[in-house]
Amino acid sequence: MSSIFVKIVRGEIPCYKIAENDDFFAFLDINPLAKGHTLVIPKQEVDYIFDIDDETHKEFWHFAKRVSTAIKLAVTCRRIGVAVIGLEVPHAHIHLIPMNRVSDMNFASPKLKVPADELEKIAQAIRSKFI
Fold it and tell me: How far is CA 64 from the centre of its chain?
């Protein structure tokens, strides 16, 4: 059975896409910890990040770095935090979270409720900075 992320990549579920290439896909988290919270995934469905082959793993992190650079240019923050938890969806993914303090990375915190039009503006701002 395909994960929700595979359905997003296929276009079966809408998303606020940030970037993609042949192997990877980045989109806004619709239940973000901070505005600009982005998920980066491999298009190939792999449950556990450390099951990804070495070359793809390296390229995955390189793609995530490029996305984080775009987020940092588009969203006011001190840093882009990185988290790999891997329990909530059985598909490897990297959380890129704009942060100003350590508590911004607390996954137990209430998630933001960001209106759809604002999510689209954030996604567009990040996309415009993606190189």
Answer: 8
Catalytic residues, which ones?
A: 93
**Nearest residue to 77 (alpha-carbon basis) of 118, 117, 37:** 37
H or E element: which one contains 38?
Answer: strand 38-42
pLDDT tens digits, 71-119: 999 999 999 999 999 888 999 999 999 999 999 999 999 999 999 999 9
CA-to-CA distance for 63 and 114, rounded, in angstroms? 26
Residues whose CB is less than 8 angstroms from the CB of residue 101 and which lie 6 or more positions away in sequence, other chains included = none
CA distance 41 to 60: 8
Give the span between the Cα atoms of 112 and 123, in whole angstroms: 16
| Cα angle for residues 22, 28, 29 (degrees, 5° grid) | 120
The domains of the chain, with CATH numbers, are: 4-129 (3.30.428.10)
